[in-house]
Predict the 3D structure of the following.
Amino acid sequence: MITLDDCRRADAEDPLAGLREQFSIPADLIYLDGNSLGALPARTPGRMDDIIRRQWGTDLIRSWNTHGWVDLPQRLGDRLAPLVGAGAGEVLVADSTSINLFKLLDLALQLRPKRRTILSDTGNFPTDLYMAQGLTRFLGRGYSLRLVEENELGEALSPDVAVIMVTQVNYRSGRLHDMARLTRLAHQAGALALWDLSHSAGVVPVDLGGCDADLAVGCGYKYLNGGPGAPAFLYVNQRHQGKGFPTLSGWFGHQTPFDFNLAYTPAPDIRRFLCGTPPILSLAGLEAGLELLSSVDMKLIRRKSMNQTDLFIHLVRQECPDCFQLISPENAAERGSQVSLGHPAGYAVVQALIAHQVIPDFRSPDIIRFGFAPLYTRHTDIWEAGQRLSAIMRSGEWERPEYQVRHSVT
Ligand SMILES: *Cc1c(COP(=O)(O)O)cnc(C)c1O
């Protein structure tokens, strides 16, 4: 039996508890959707204001040099690198996750020119699959995306596979893939491994270098707290740098963009994966988010995250037994920082929770997703979310007609 006092004690003993003050979160809100849009760091508005008024407003175009705007994508990449087990010069912050997937799939296919297949799984996030479909359609010549079930990726590594594209933490179930094992299997089959870290960077310790991963991408607005639509990142293992010819050959990826040559020569380093002018205001928002993470030990974050997802599962079973199906793995070591519950009227349950100031999200057709962000989620928030959820289930409040109406973003 878990009590409110247990949760209060867990907060009092939590070494990360002080970090919550570094965020602006409405006092009456229980925010369990940091896996979709991370909360606002308290320092971000001031930082953005300085960049807008002083750097842009006063210093204007000189800021590209005087405030180092021109190097910001690489500087932020280097700041992010330790969070994902990468080295200096291996990570770049640019564009969106979708665009970065295109760039790195393009590179992977060039690095394995005799092979024509991108292998992924039916649990992957749709944009990952759509970008692969778009790229293979554009290339023609027998290129294709092949999809198998999540647990069949290893066996499906036939000799035609150039690259496997896997999201480390499944966005629906929260299942955590074994990066070391799948990367090793891909390499044994002569293929490359491209990892999407959107649901792991900043909350699960990632070791791209230790796993010898080839390529990776990830999202800036989830656990990195970069703000809505924040720039994403990409990783290219040192051994693949300077190779291939970027199909998205924009001038910021040119070796010498300010020579204004007529022909494109890719930069020798990670900069070749820049495309157009970097979005400085958005990058500044991401920098503020990354600063908060840089000061924290990922092991502590992971330990708290595992405790919190366990706590929530126990509370749901205690407070509303038999209401939901647990979609996430039972074992904390096998899941990321979310708990997914299945319910046929999941959407309506989410709407009722939101009306009671608890924000999870919904993923079609029937999944309620609760994300736990160890930098700002308290154990008492989880207790309270469990109480409100059980009240809604017991009263049948979720059956009200207004909760059945679908909004365009779920
Ligand atoms: C959130 C997420 C994305 C988002 O891609 P955008 O280009 O930022 O819209 C992509 N892939 C995965 C696995 C995600 O979780």
Observations:
- The first strand starts at residue 23 and ends at 24.
- Residues 298-319 form the longest helix (22 residues).
- Residues 96-98, 125, 127-128, 167, 171, 196, 198-199, 219, 232 surround pyridoxal-5'-phosphate (CB under 6 Å).
